Please model this.
Amino acid sequence: MPKKTVVVFLILLTAIGIYFVKDLNSLPTITYFPIDYGTSFTNATTHLQVNPNDSTKNYILEWDVSSTTEVPMYLRQDVSLLYANGELKGMRSKWRENKDTIEYTERLKDNQDARWDAITFHYGEIHLDNTINSVQKITADHLFVYRQNSIFKLTDSDIKSKQQKLVELETKKKLLSHWQSLLTYFKIDIQNYESIPLTDLYTIQDKPFLNMDKENSDRVIGQLWEGLYKNYIIPNIESKDSLKSFVPLILFDKKGDHLLVVYEINGRKEKLIQKLQLD
Model:
């Protein structure tokens, strides 16, 4: 290859490399901005359902996420996590600029008796008159799948089957043991905290907690998802290897000083710390 051709080729290759690095670095991140209470979501859902496969021992889990805001926004983004019996099975994030709607569906093949849990953070970023605000909402869904053609949605009124009770008991024991190992490793006294699994976070979004008002509660939740996105999701979402992780545990300091998130992923124990800085 002539020397001039080699030089041109190297220049092009470098340019392409720079482009890809720039593109990766320009991916949007979830950043908390003060909530715009005058704008909201007209729709936000996380939905799990099951379709039978050709084999009676397998099924296809459909994981649907969708949301729409009242108006198009500078940035719309939905990030969703999926767990089966407390173990991480999927991370998904989709974003759009100057749009109002996000929709996506994932399909997973499985054959285990499982309690499936999905939780989604719906986010919108509003730029107006040199001011940045945001909107946010958490949705979740759960489903118990019993592969012998007994598939039903969990509700408070469901009479749980013996198999379901057994699966949920085993999952609870597994998670409690896992969380205890993290608390021991990080020397955390659980008596100083109110704790909640990440998959249950949606249950506190519409009611004040730790004596916080609505504005402080929303800020804490928004900043929590900002930290989860940057530290738990982004470093792992494009991993080509299977991720070994369980539902993270969120710990709110009873004095209102800070919160902690403890989790393990692929054998690495991690602890996130967030100052609450309440008004």
Q: What stands out?
A: Strands lie at 41-52, 59-84, 87-110, 114-128, 131-146, 150-153, 193-197, 249-253, 258-265, 268-275. Residues 3-26 have pLDDT under 50 and may be disordered. Residues 1-29 form one domain.
